[in-house]
Every structure is written in C-alpha cells, then in structure tokens.
Amino acid sequence: MQMPKKEMRRLFGICGVLFLSAVILAVCVRKYDALFDSMARVPILGWIVAYNFPPRDYYLPVAHFPLAAGKLKQTVICKYRGRYDIHIVGVKSNAVERSDVSIMAEAVDKSGKSIWRNIRSSSELFKYFSSRGNREEEYRYFYLTFSAPEDVPCNTPFVLSICCNGAVSELLQHVPNATVEVVKVFDK
C-alpha cells in the first residue's frame, strides 16, 4: 500500500523543516560538531546530513606523519563516530602502481593497554579527486580501517603507533612528499 502523494509531500516537508531548524539551531549555538553525530544516526535523514553537511573538520586528518621507515607515534582524538582510514598520500602520479611498503598500526589507551592492532603488507594505488574543490586527480595507497567507538574511543585521546617497513626508500624516490594520514571517511 502506497502513501498518497499529498501525505508524502507533507512528510518530506516536515522532515525538511525539522532538519533546517536543527541546523540553524546548531549553527546559532555553535554546537554543530556535537549535534552532527546525533543527526547522522537518524535513518535516511542522517545519510543526507552526513553526505551533504559535514562539519568543517570532518575530513581533516586526525594524524599526519611524513613517510619514513620505522615507528611513528602520535596522540590522536577521533572526534566523530564512524570509519577512519590509514593511507599513504601525496602521490601525484600513477607511476608506482603497487607500494611494497607494509604498515602495522596499533592504538594504545592512556593506561598503555593495546585496544586495536592491524597490519597490511602492501597496497595498490587508488585514484580519487581532490577535496580542495579543484577536481584534480590525486592518488593514495589505502592500508587499514578502524572505527570509533567500536575499535578506538571517541573524544578520548589515545596513542597511535604506525610502523612502516619494506620498500619505504624506493617509494620515497618516486614520491618524495609522501605522508601517512589517518582520516575520517564517509561511512558507507
């Protein structure tokens, strides 16, 4: 049984007014970042909010290391719920299709207890379009994924160690400005 068109329009109108009211309220109160996670969990409407109206810092890296052999360490805070990816970025061409760099990552809580750990031995190059609005093609090597708060805590600092091994120096010859980033990604 289908809902009549008039009732569907009314329902969408009410949802639209509620959504706009929440956004205006959040912006006025300057609490959009805190309200965002709650709004993004609402079925269907949440996907629209998350995809079209993310907070300004939503896709900014939460950790950023220059690519180097050995262990890299940083205190990290995952402000938003959902999926975070670990990538090697700064790749300007597709000259090296496969990275023979392995990455082992481990998250440790404030008491020193390991809360998440994973490893990947190599990665293929992925093409994407720049998020800076200029639609330039860029490339990255995708490695690992974790989720907040399932794997690591939300809004609580933890130490993230990333150990890079393998063909790091060979990759740096082709990609001298390569960095390892941990970034919030859209939850599929």
Report on this structure.
The protein has 188 residues and is of the alpha+beta class. The chain has two domains: 5-52, no CATH class; 61-184, Hypothetical Protein Tm1070, Chain: A (Sandwich), CATH 2.60.290. The protein is 26% helix and 39% strand. It contains four helices and ten strands, in the order αααβββββββββαβ. The chain has helices spanning 5-29, 32-40, 45-52, 168-174, and strands spanning 61-66, 70-76, 82-91, 98-99, 101-108, 114-120, 123-129, 137-148, 158-166, 179-184. The strands form two sheets. The protein has a six-stranded antiparallel β-sheet with strand order 1-10-3-8-7-4, with no helix packed on it. A hairpin with a 5-residue loop joins β5 and β6. α2 (32-40) crosses α3 (45-52). The longest helix has 25 residues, at 5-29. The protein is globular. The chain starts with a helix and ends with a strand. The mean pLDDT is 87.
Topology, pairings included?
Layout: H1 5-29, H2 32-40, H3 45-52, E1 61-66, E2 70-76, E3 82-91, E4 98-99, E5 101-108, E6 114-120, E7 123-129, E8 137-148, E9 158-166, H4 168-174, E10 179-184
Antiparallel strand pairs: 1-10, 2-9, 3-8, 3-10, 4-7, 5-6, 5-9, 7-8
Helix pairs in contact: 2-3
